[in-house]
Amino acid sequence: MTGQEPAPEIRQGGLVTGVAPGSAGEALGVTPGDVLTAVNGYAVEDVIDVQYYAADEHLELTVLRAGQERVLSGARAYNEELGLEFEHPTFDVDIRRCNNLCEFCFVLQMAPRMRRTLYIKDDDYRYSFLFGHYVTLTNLSERDWWRIANQGLSPLYVSVHATDLDLRRRFLRNDTAPDIVEQLRWLIDNGVEVHTQIVVTPEVNDGPHLEKSVRDLAALYPGVRSVSVVPVGLTRHHKYGMRVNTVEEAQKVLERCHTWGDAYKAQLGVNFVYPTDEWYLVTRRPVPPRDWYDGLSLEENGLGMVRRFLEEWERSLPEVEGHALFWELEMMPVKSLTLATGALFADTLKTHAGDFTDTTGVPSEVIPIANTRLGETITVAGLLMGEDVVAQLSGRELGEVVVLPRVMFDHPDGVSLDDQSPLDIARALGRPVALADLMGDVVDILHGQAAMLFDPVQGPRISPDAVHRAGGWAVEKYL
Fold first, then answer.
1. Distance between CA 474 and CA 373 in Å, rounded?
2. Which of 37, 206, 211, 391 can bridge 13 by disulfide, Cβ–Cβ 3.0-4.6 Å?
3. Angle separating helix axes 305-322 and 439-446, nearest 10 degrees
4. Are 157 and 295 part of one and the same domain?
5. Which CATH number characterizes residue 187's domain?
């Protein structure tokens, strides 16, 4: 971990799949199908290299086109986008695999006979920098440390779980895992900011172990910018005897986190320790206000998503109430809804769907869907199975449109974990299916303006303004 090794020459290159109109790449003459091998004389092994070496005002791109090497050169205006899309964000090798055997690893608990990519354990620091994925830092070479320091790959997102070296090695089932505190200090000394997470497993790394870990990480603030405290998730295929937190244990963890947060707010000016939303939903405690999160954007890690939902609903209320005549005259194209979601969020959604129905008069039934493939301890909407939605909604009296969480379909192909598309579900139920993130999306559905609607007969109707926000499972397209 010296960070001093020079980068070796690599000439594999990245396949260009798209060039943005009006971009510097188009002006230089790059075309889809080119293989970019070097920028300004430096070999590139991933999009990080491309971004780093293409920051100059003069560009010289070396590409392979039809097997022939070409050099494309020209000027680039300040802040002008390079505009290149690649088949794969890493050109040299496939995504870096994890060398740990964590007993709570979700990949090791996956149900059998699902798609191949769900069984690949990724732990790639480059994806941490590019996409905010949490990594353990247990598989880095000297050259990786060199790149992190010299290219300023900040922030990184690190799974700590325990700062005690022996406990962390047992937790990761990796006897050679380095000292994470030393690694974090090295990153901070080299100008890299870090967001960390601790997955809390009862009787393993909770209690005094959790307190020590939080204290050790707080001593590294502001280099360590945050600690997300996450409850362990275990499927029915878990084989190692761990268990999920009870409601009472969840209450204790939440109380401790808020006690620590109050102390760090006074000491550091930020709460520093942030329990993810699941702790609040399980214990039925209200989620904190927006400013409690200190301006952090960690929603992809399950932190602040419920607050975002609640605030968006408050913003939508004036629009809903302002269309009172619209509702009374029954002018809306859709007059009843069925909203399906994971068991964890169902009660929150029922409350606000009830308010929605009281205001509009539109029946909006909320149905929690149990996850039978992974087990009923898996309660989040993003891991719902299409087959469970179909099985548990079939035979029921459904609304004119079935509304499903958009996060169910965060795979690049727009399918659920069990490879069901929204259109597959719509055809199985004989009802249009619309995707939604927030209550404002539900308002749009009633207006006949759903951003993503899948009709069993007419097929998909996707608004040009619809945004597919690829989440954690989207990394599969690179595996």
1. 20
2. 37
3. 30
4. yes
5. 3.80.30
Residue 249 domain-assigned (yes or no): yes
5 in a structural domain: no
Residues 139 and 158 in one domain: yes
What's the pLDDT at 265? 97
Helix axes 439-446, 343-360, angle to 10 degrees: 50
Q: In which domain, by residue range, is 19 found?
A: 14-86
What is the identity of the amino acid at 373? R
Looking at residue 467, its pLDDT comes to 61
User: Which residue type sits at 409?
Assistant: F
Residues 174 and 251 in one domain: yes
Q: Which residue, 288, 303, 318, sits at the end of a domain?
A: 303
**What counts of helices (H) and strands (E) characterise the chain?**
15, 16
**281 and 360 housed in the same domain:** no
Two tokens at 69? 């090497």
Are 227 and 375 in a shared domain?
no
Tokens of 424: 């597959």
Task: Give this prediction's pTM.
Answer: 0.91
Residue pair 82/23 in contact (Cβ under 8 Å)? The answer is yes
Same domain, 169 and 290: yes
CA distance 347 to 422: 24
What is the structure's pLDDT at 239? 92
Q: Is 46 helix (H, G, I), strand (E, B) or coil?
A: strand
Cβ–Cβ contacts within 10 Å for residue 469, how many? 11
**Are 372 and 404 a contacting pair, CB within 8 Å?**
no
Distance CA 235, CA 374 (A): 5
Return the closest-CA partner of residue 376 out of 237, 477, 470: 237
Which amino acid belongs to residue 53? Y
Report percent pLDDT > 90 for the chain.
Answer: 72
What is the model's pLDDT at position 472? 58
Contact 415, 409 (CB under 8 A): yes
Q: Where are the alpha helices (DSSP H) in 193-289?
A: 208-218, 247-268, 277-283
Instruction: Find, among 454, 245, 281, the residue nearest to 368 by Cα.
Output: 281
Q: Based on the domain organization, do 362 and 226 belong to the same domain?
A: no
Domain tally, the chain: 3
Q: Give the mean pLDDT per block of 10 residues along the chain (479 residues).
A: 57 89 94 96 94 92 94 89 92 85 92 88 93 95 95 97 98 97 98 98 97 98 98 94 96 97 97 97 95 90 89 81 58 85 95 86 93 95 96 96 94 89 96 92 86 92 68 56
